[in-house]
């Protein structure tokens, strides 16, 4: 079966991917991680999506690549349950790895739901190495924990604009160990996306942290959250997160909030739990040198 390599995805292709994901999620009892914002805002300059259709025109296999830094590409995908054990996912992975080599990515991170036995078996057989896990956490507005915010914190959370580029570049470098080049490209991509929103937290007019937000199905997904290194461990992270939740509920009537956190990041996990977040799922990451 032919692999369709895509630089952008049509509305019909996006719908096909959603329907295939629904089938796989239902039958496997999991929630596949597919970055829908990335899928809807492909640049059209690079191949990041690989699709396989059957003779009837139904999507039966899909793999997507997500690139957030020059040192690696993240990959997730699926095959319709009726078409598994036919080597289709292997074909999708081989096509993606060829693309990664052409773009000179040193490594690839495969995203596998923690409960996917078949996914883990494939990745082990493919020679990957387990590297880390992330919790998927959710918070409903009704369950938000009351978090005390000091009256002395004259904090404001506002939408970032291009004039904040240097601040955001610096925060990403400190918070996520990104190179300046990767951080700058990431900031520019976020500003260029119509579906991604970046917020800056300021204390007495000085930036102390940042967060990114996307919206889907009435929920807000929070990502890229970091606080100035000198202010960590002093309650600012909790205050910023709670402030953003309150602001989004007040201004956009958002009542469900989601985020991811590394399983081993106990400090961040504690902050999120104190704001009402609870673990609902987990994804494992496996690395392969290209």
Write the layout of secondary structure elements.
Elements: E1 3-6, H1 11-28, H2 36-40, E2 49-53, E3 59-69, E4 72-79, H3 88-102, E5 107-113, H4 117-125, E6 129-140, E7 155-159, H5 165-176, H6 180-192, E8 197-203, E9 206-216, E10 219-227, H7 236-252, E11 256-262, H8 266-274, E12 278-289
Parallel strand pairs: 4-5, 10-11
Antiparallel strand pairs: 1-2, 2-3, 3-4, 5-12, 6-11, 6-12, 7-8, 8-9, 9-10
Helix pairs in contact: 5-6
Give an overview of the whole structure:
This protein has 290 residues and is α+β, with helices and mostly antiparallel strands. The protein folds into 2 domains: 3-127, Aminopeptidase (3-Layer(aba) Sandwich), CATH 3.40.630; 138-281, Gcn5-related N-acetyltransferase (GNAT) (Aminopeptidase, 3-Layer(aba) Sandwich), CATH 3.40.630.30. It has 8 helices and 12 strands. A hairpin with a 2-residue loop joins strand 8 and strand 9. The mean pLDDT is 93.
